[in-house]
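The authors assume throughout that readers already know how a fold can be written as discrete tokens. For illustration, here is how one protein appears when written out as sequence plus structure tokens:
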Amino acid sequence: MFNRLTANDFRHDSAARLRAAIFMVAVVVIAPTLRADDKVEPKQSVDDAAEITQLISQLNADEYKTRKAATQRLRELGAAAIPALEQAASGKDLEVMIRAIGVLRSHYPRDSADTTEAASDALERLAMSDALSVRSRAAKILDSYSDVRRKRAVAKIEQLGGSIKYLGETQGIITQSSMIHFVFLGADWKGGIQGLKYIKRLSGLRQLYFTENFELTMEQVADLQATLPGLETQRRSEAYLGISGSEDLDGMRPGCFVQTVQPGQPADLAKLRTRDLIVKFGKYDISTFRNPTDAKSLIRVIEEFEPDDKVKVEFIRDGIRRETEITLGRWFPKSDTTKPPKP
């Protein structure tokens, strides 16, 4: 009544079942990656989270072999494990802290940009920890990779619409090690407040300029200066004159004393020179250079003008009052792509 199965029939049936099972697994695993609304970075699965929790607990296991294997596996998990590693590094267990910070360090500088960025963010937060041992270890790692962090921060700032000027740039003397003169965040800046973390990675930065399109609060300035001691922040308009200045040297005369003139820039083209005293800019009397509370400071007055405006400027040179016409430039023209050469 029943057909007898031969050995050959059984083999064919088993193979068919195996192929079907493999196909079903493939559908379950692959199909989610094909959804149009999925994020580029996959979400951490429940199994991954459980594994990471277990691995963190094994960082202080009694057996060295177990600790070593857990450390290696956490490295392999990349960005998915970084939040748990940061939390573990903040704990009180010395062995766990050392290994967790060690894994974060391992992502410099060879891993993907996303993983390195996540590790960098975690280390920066750990460098502000109340625990001295955690703070000092994280800060030491960040310092050891300062060159890598600087190069990546420069690239990110420019990608987000910021502009960077280097010492020696006006003379065409720019190398990979050139010091940054200042950073300018103008109308093209798309980084917002979150993007300020890249500014913090420019160790030694002394000047940060921004326009009314991107205002900084006193708290944000204080936060930047906590990481970059000596940093000066100034609001500037898009219009550019091309000088540095101060009050009159003897303090007796109102006006902007010209300290330096940038070669090839609007002030230079209009024949302004160092030691000139600018006393009038357009219809505005000038009392000083950059006092932010003084409406007659040159920096505040320039905010009333736009790039390409022609302005009559009155100045004193050798005791004689003179005048010239200046065509204002733009802080960073759209075509300005000057930057240090790639290594």
Remarks:
- The longest strand covers residues 310-317.
